């Protein structure tokens, strides 16, 4: 062939090739085209089809080549299905087409991401797990990272699974709705695992309680008190509050209300109700606040006999001075004390004086304080500390002559304090005897004779011992008085023995008492020897005494006559006169 012919053929070939259309650019798509696939994200275990589409190339018999090469398994088709996807299936996918010997360009790469299934989370809105009957709560199933996917949901408990099964449920709860809630998601044939359980507790609506701080329902004018509305178990909830009386409802309506410088107009009943969202609790019970003028304290003395006897106690005793505020029980008072005009230290409600002395005498007064409020001063109570009195022992009847078998009352008397709560100690001689009361009665025998004394105690204080009072018992023995010689006629100048004899009393250590008293010269013996004169004429009596026993008196009469004188005859007539 000549060179000219070849040139023409080349030119024609060039013209024909230059006018041919460029091959179309393929596009990679993913099927199914769900919301999750749309973002090129699937979950392990899901199935996806990767498809190579050549726009305008319909009807042509294309063969395809894929990247990555694992997709190129003959025959090489336009789509590639991945069943049970794993993370290794993730990556970029692109393709090109070929017909005859002509290839298209490579498509743009589409990236497929394969994720592990996300574990759902159940949430509550509002987020409190403690819900009250009648409130509305939304239970929501959230799958993190699963946004945009066409999920359907399965719930436990099963009663929530009503088609279409959605990601949340709005419930106006009753106590029947208490329990555990969990969910899982499903996309195509893929299921997530079950969420952790969240427990919803539905309780009966709480009843608020109104409290006072400090907790006294009785307060005094000028004091400060906080009225608080407390909802048991409702901690952490965003409550708003409504109060009665309405004057407390000043927005924002809070859970407590502070009353400073209280007046009587602040007294009355206080109650409250709580609200969160559209839910209301019940009204609380009303608590009554009483505002009164501060009381006047009273000073008392304990033990009680110090009150009965005008505050008189005895040195060495213990007394408690107490400040009492009528109607102020339970309040946290501090106290101020005075004795006279001098402040004394104690700040408590009582002041104990141990082993009182006369320096503790005086007028005691007090006042009380709680918070910044003071009561007025109490009236003065006077305490007198005296030396213990000396008792006296008396006998009833008070006769000096007491006979065996008589009934006698022995009494210990303390002048001026007859009604005090004394206990007594008694002695007869040096021996203790048992009665502890102020009086005791005996039917006397000879052994009851003796010297009686007593002392008294109350609290830790003792009186001194009384003086001794002697009880002498007259026993039924009558002595015999005899004269020696026993002549009926005794003359002046003669010697006579007057003797007191006690029949059956031999061996006893008797002493004797005589009448006339001139015979009672110690030692007082049972006989007296007298050289008599006419003045010794008269009655003689004696009785015997041993220890504290006396016999009866016994009597005898002595008559003393003039002594006869013998005269000589010449003496008779020596004088002028004759005496006959």
Automatic annotation (TrEMBL):
Residues 26-111, 120-203, 208-288, 297-367, 391-469, 479-543 form the Ig-like domain. Residues 73-86 have a biased composition (Polar residues). The keyword Signal applies. GO terms for molecular function: transmembrane signaling receptor activity. Keywords: Disulfide bond, Signal. Residues 1-20 form the signal peptide. This is Ig-like domain-containing protein. One of its GO terms (biological process) is immune response. It comes from Oreochromis niloticus. Pfam families: Ig_2, Ig_3. Residues 71-95 are annotated as: Disordered. One of its GO terms (cellular component) is external side of plasma membrane.
